[in-house]
C-alpha cells in the first residue's frame, strides 16, 4: 500500500513540475504574438538593439501580450525620458560651472522638452492621433538641437542626452504607429 501511495506522489510531483515548466498553448501563442509585435515595432525604429533594450527595460509590459499595453509602456518611458532630459538641462543651466552665455540656449531647450512632454500622452492612442502628437514632441527636440547648433554649443553630454531621448522616443513612436495601423479605420 505504501508503494502505491509513493507512486501517486511521484506522479503528482512530476505532473506539477511539467505543468509549471512548460507553458500552456495559450501562453505560448501569446508569447509568439508578443514577439511578432515586438519585431514589427523594432523594424520601424531602425535600431533593433536599442529598441529591444527599451522594450525590455519594463518586461512586465512586454509580456502582457497586448499591443495597447506595449504602446502605453513605450509612451510612459518616453515621458520619463523627457522628464529626465528636462532635469538634465535644468541642472546644466543652474550649474555655476556653466558658461553664462550658454544658459539662455539651455533654458530654451528646457522649454522645448517641457512643451514636447505635453504631446506625449496616452489619450492619442485610442483616437489614432498619437503619432501626430508625437511628431510635435519630436519637433520640440529638433528645435532644441537647432538652437544649440545656431549658438555653436557642442557639448558631448548634451548630445548624448538628446540621443538617448531620441532612442526611447523612436520606440514609442514606432509602437504607436504599429498600434494605429492595427486599429480599424473609422467610417
From TrEMBL:
<dbReference type="GO" id="GO:0004857">
    <property type="term" value="F:enzyme inhibitor activity"/>
</dbReference>
<keyword id="KW-0732">Signal</keyword>
<feature type="domain" description="Pectinesterase inhibitor">
    <location>
        <begin position="33"/>
        <end position="175"/>
    </location>
</feature>
<dbReference type="Pfam" id="PF04043">
    <property type="entry name" value="PMEI"/>
</dbReference>
<dbReference type="InterPro" id="IPR006501">
    <property type="entry name" value="Pectinesterase_inhib_dom"/>
</dbReference>
<dbReference type="InterPro" id="IPR035513">
    <property type="entry name" value="Invertase/methylesterase_inhib"/>
</dbReference>
<protein>
    <submittedName>
        <fullName>PLANT INVERTASE/PECTIN METHYLESTERASE INHIBITOR SUPERFAMILY PROTEIN</fullName>
    </submittedName>
</protein>
<feature type="signal peptide">
    <location>
        <begin position="1"/>
        <end position="28"/>
    </location>
</feature>
Amino acid at each position: 500500500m505504501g508503494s502505491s501511495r509513493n507512486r501517486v506522489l511521484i506522479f503528482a510531483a512530476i505532473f506539477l513540475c511539467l505543468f509549471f515548466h512548460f507553458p500552456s498553448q495559450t501562453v505560448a501563442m501569446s508569447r509568439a504574438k508578443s514577439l511578432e509585435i515586438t519585431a514589427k515595432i523594432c523594424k520601424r525604429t531602425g535600431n533593433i538593439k536599442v529598441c529591444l533594450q527599451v522594450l525590455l527595460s519594463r518586461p512586465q509590459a512586454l509580456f502582457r501580450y497586448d499591443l495597447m499595453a506595449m504602446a502605453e509602456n513605450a509612451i510612459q518611458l518616453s515621458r520619463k525620458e523627457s522628464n529626465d532630459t528636462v532635469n538634465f538641462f535644468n541642472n546644466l543651466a543652474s550649474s555655476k560651472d556653466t558658461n553664462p552665455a550658454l544658459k539662455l540656449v539651455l533654458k530654451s531647450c528646457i522649454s522645448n522638452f517641457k512643451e514636447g512632454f505635453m504631446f506625449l500622452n496616452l489619450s492619442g492612442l485610442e483616437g489614432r492621433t498619437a503619432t501626430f502628437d508625437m511628431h510635435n514632441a519630436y519637433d520640440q527636440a529638433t528645435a532644441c538641437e537647432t538652437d544649440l547648433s545656431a549658438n555653436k554649443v557642442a557639448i558631448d553630454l548634451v548630445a548624448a542626452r538628446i540621443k538617448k531621448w531620441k532612442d526611447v522616443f523612436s520606440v514609442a513612436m514606432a509602437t504607436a504607429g504599429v498600434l494605429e495601423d492595427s486599429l480599424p479605420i473609422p467610417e
